[in-house]
Each structure stands twice: as C-alpha cells, then as structure tokens.
Design a protein that fits this description.
Distance between the termini: 46 Å
Low-confidence stretches: none
Largest sheet: 4 strands, parallel
CATH superfamily of the largest domain: HUPs
Number of strands: 15
Structural class: alpha/beta
Shape: elongated
Number of helices: 16
Oligomer: single chain
Number of domains: 3
Helix content: 40-55%
Radius of gyration: 28 Å
CATH architecture of the largest domain: 3-Layer(aba) Sandwich
CATH class of the largest domain: Alpha Beta
Length: 494
Amino acid sequence: MLNPIKVYNTFSQKKEEFVPLFDGRVTMYVCGVTVYDHAHIGHARAAVIFDVIYRYLKYRGYQVTYVRNFTDVDDKIINRANAEDRSWKEIADTFIDDYSEDMKALGVQSPTHEPRATDHINEMIALVSTLIERGHAYELDGDVYFSVGSFSEYGRLSKKNIDEQLSGARVEKDERKRDPRDFALWKASKPGEPWWPSPWGNGRPGWHIECSAMSCKYLGETLDIHGGGKDLVFPHHENERAQTEAATGKPFVRYWVHNGFVNINSEKMSKSLGNFFTIKDILNEYHPEVVRLFLLSHHYRSPVDFSQETMKDVENGIERIYAALADIDVLIGQSQPQPVAEGSLSALEAAAYQDVQALAGRFEEAMDDDFNTAQAVGAVYHVVRALNRFMTDKQFEKTGQALAVLAEASRQIVRLGGVLGVFQVPPADYLEGVKRKKLAQLAVSVEEIEQLIAERNQARSSKNWARADEIRAGLQQKGIVLEDRKDGTTWSVV
C-alpha cells in the first residue's frame, strides 16, 4: 500500500494528507503568465515545479486534469500594444507562442487545458452577475466592484490584517468605492482599450475574475489544488477565493500550493538591478535539464539562488549521473541482460542491488513529503555513487548478474528521472554535448585532439616516449585529459 502524500497548504499553514475531492481524480489549476513580454527564470520555476507535481500525481496513479491559463488582456499588454502601435491581440499572440516555445524547450508537459482569458468573457460576465445578485458586488458607472466587507472570511488565506489589506488595496485606488479594499470585477471601457459588451456597458474583465471563471468552467466549483508563486497569495488568490466562494457558496480550493522565488546572486531579480534573465537567456547558456535540476535543487517553497557557481555545480552533478549511465551502457554493450536473480548474486552484486532496490522507496518518500524534489534528487545521487563504487571495485566482474543489476539501476534512474523531467537524453548524446560545449570554450576542435592522439599513438609505437609525454602534457594544459585503455585512448574535458 502506498504512503499518503503530504501537502503544505498555504491556507492552514501546515502539511496535510492529500485527499482529493473525488477518489482517484485530481483537479489542479495554476495561474499562468500575463503575456506582454518574454517569460523569465521566475516563471520557469513555477512552470517546472507544477509540471513535476503534475507528473508525480500521474506517477502515483491519479487521473489529473491540469489547467494553466494565459492572461491575454491586461493593462501591461494594452500599454505595450499602444507604445508599439500594435493591436493588443497581436502582442498577446506573440508572447503566447513565445512562452509555449520556452515550455517545450524546458520539457514542461502541456496541461490538460490551456485557456485564454478572452475566450471566456461570457463566463466572467455570468459570474459577476451572480455576485451582484447575491449582494457581493455593485456597479459604479460601468465599473463593477467586489464588496470585500460582504465576505467575512476575507484575509484568511493571506493572513493579512485590515491595515495590510488597505495597503495592498491602494493599487486600485478609486474614491467612489464603498470600501478601499473593494476590487474591480469589470472595468468600463476607455479609449484605446479592447472591450466587450456587458449588462453594465462596454468594458473588460478585472484580473482576478478571469481565473475564477476559467477554473470553475474546466474543473468545477471546488478544486483540489490551486497553485502559483508566493507573490500571488495576496491580493490575487485572496480575491479569487473571496469572489468564487461568495458566488458558489462552496469551498473553492482544498489545497493552496505556492512556490518560492528565484533570486539572482542572493538578490531579488529586477530589471533595474540588471540581474533579470529570461528563460531564453538561461537556455542559451545551459542545457534544459540543467535548468530543471537547478530549479528542483531546493524545496519548492524555499527560494533558490541563481549564480554561475550554483549552475556549474548542477552541471557537474548531472554530468556525473550521465557518465555513470554511459559507463553502464558500455559495460552492457549489445548483450541482453536477464532479470536479477537475487540468489545468484555475489556479495558485491547483492550490496549494489540493495541500493538499487531502495531507490524508488527513497524517491517516493521524498516526493510524498510535500513534493520534496531536493531529497528526491539526492536519492538518485546516492544510488549513482553506490553504482560507481560497484563498477570500480577491484572485485567487480562482468557477470550476467552484474549486468542485470546495472541494467535495472539504469532503468530505475531513467524512470524516476522522468518524474522530474531529467535524465531523459541518451547518455552518450548528453556527454557529447557537454564535451562540445567545453571544447568551444577552450577553442580546440575534436579533429585537432584526434590528430594529436593519433600522433601520440605513433610515437608510443616507435617508443618515442618523450614526444608521447609532450603531447599528453600539451593537451592537459588545454584541459584535455587522456586515458589509455585496452581498447584504445579516450579523452575528456575538465
């Protein structure tokens, strides 16, 4: 029997056993991006975190309906469109395509539904109308506001008191409002803005009502998981909860899940500080799996610090895993390993197999504890270290059972890596990419190296040891390390 999954619920501020509303089925809504610019590394973290949660829930056997939206009408979109003399729709379409390319490059799986706000105006109007009918909203000259005072539980999600709520409300300052905290559900049209007809005149929806309408349409009035970055807790998710529960009279979300921020060299990412990185910037420098592993290297609720040193460490770590998988591939070669027969294992093989057998349990234990990807990755590193000790042990023999243990280890690493979206590249291909990247940095070509190795082999055949040593030393100075094996000389880049 599988252990229960524990999820930290922002609402209760504690870990709770995960029990979906319907047995075997999970509904999950994650706030997507406002499409007015290229997505940045902070957006990547939210996308990757909830992609992994999505993957793990499916791994655990749940049928998951996952919705991640696009906010395609917003002040920022309109402002950019007006500044560039383009239509708001053109801006939105451009950056929706751009974001989709980024997600594909990062290996983020497509959600079940990926709705655009502007395709659901009718649902939003219906929801606003219900709120007015129930006394939770009011109209002012074509604008419609939610009455915060009508919802007694306002502030329970964010744990903000009245003064903090008032401070946050200053973003939507309007002296006409009954309460400064009241927020816009519908905005009357202004010159140069898109609009849609409504019972209150031409206008467009407020930001918060969009997610309520889309989540209810695709997932029902009560969701299992609602996710997003910590910056969305207030006011966005607080407002979402208030307006949805006021309209339906039902609990809106069972588990509120929020990820931490990405800092740059221990500072908050900001264009003004010059430490702002788009997803494209990062992927131009690092392999997508390196980026994913970096984003998963800390617990999702904790901040993660981006720096060149950190990324180098992650690169080295994933390279070690792929190197171990490549060594296994070489050892197995063209053979077809048989299933492991525990009674036929040597002591050395049995010890290695014990670590392999424990891997899935350690991985699942970590993921069951509030999706602790850092510990899950640690479980993989642990078994890889054990495999390296096994393959380099003086007593290691290439027996059928030894190969069976190694084959099972490789299978498990790739299978569990699939939950994290890493270790999915053929090992030889990944390492070849690493090698070529390093060579580009060293300004030396594969052809030059192979030529020098051939010359060195000739020198060794002629017993010209001085020349052979000279070539080895020269390559080493350039960061190329040679290793002489029975089947020939191999090289690597340090």
